[in-house]
Amino acid sequence: MQQEQSTRHTEATHAPELHRPCGLGRLLLVMLYDAVIVFAILMIAGAFALHLPFSNQTAGKDFAYTTYLLSAWFLYLAWCWRNGGMTLGMMAWKIQLISARGGQPAWWQCGLRFGTAWLSAIVVGMGYWWKLFDRHKLSWHDHLSQTHLVCFTSASSRARSDSTSQEINGSDGQ
């Protein structure tokens, strides 16, 4: 069973000409881009909190308020990952999150990825640095959540933009 999952993960990671594993540098740029968006989301969530019982709370000190803000952060990421596999930062850098089986990640995978990404970062970033040494370029949270990031080549980007154009125009390419 474990070997079967490993085989599926390897096959999905090395899909031929459409995409390749995402490198650490590009991932850090995506994280920087998305940090601006997450900051805005947390500011909006904080503004809403003024009308909730959290009005005099401090993030990091008050458990309920911190959980509320982490939930807002998680919902942004998970919704993006479940609906297209990309946050705005990932779209800009042509990166997509896919499950080991090749499709959109499940909610449990999004939750596990979000939680274990913190573990990857807390240990002096070792979970992220691991990408440099892993033969499939996977981080700790990639392994644990059975998901991974892929970079699109120009051919796959062109195919995706063509399908998006067809969806917008309401045609099916015929």
Keywords:
174 residues; mainly alpha; three-stranded antiparallel β-sheet; 8 helices; 3 strands; 60% helix
At a glance:
The chain is mainly alpha-helical.
Overall helicity: 55-70%
Kindly name the structural category: mainly alpha
Number of helices: 8
Largest sheet: 3 strands, antiparallel
As residue ranges, the low-confidence spans are 1-17, 164-169
What overall form do the CA principal axes indicate? globular
**Mean pLDDT over the residues:** 81
Task: Sketch the topology as an H/E string, one letter per element.
Answer: HEHHHEHHHEH
Give the amount of beta strand, in percent. 5-15%
Question: What is the strand tally?
Answer: 3
State the strand order across the main sheet.
Answer: 1-3-2
Radius of gyration: 18 Å
- The separation of the N and C termini measures 43 Å
Can you describe what's shown?
The structure is a single chain. By secondary structure, this protein is mainly α. It contains eight helices and three strands, in the order H-E-H-H-H-E-H-H-H-E-H. Strands 1-3-2 form a three-stranded antiparallel beta sheet.
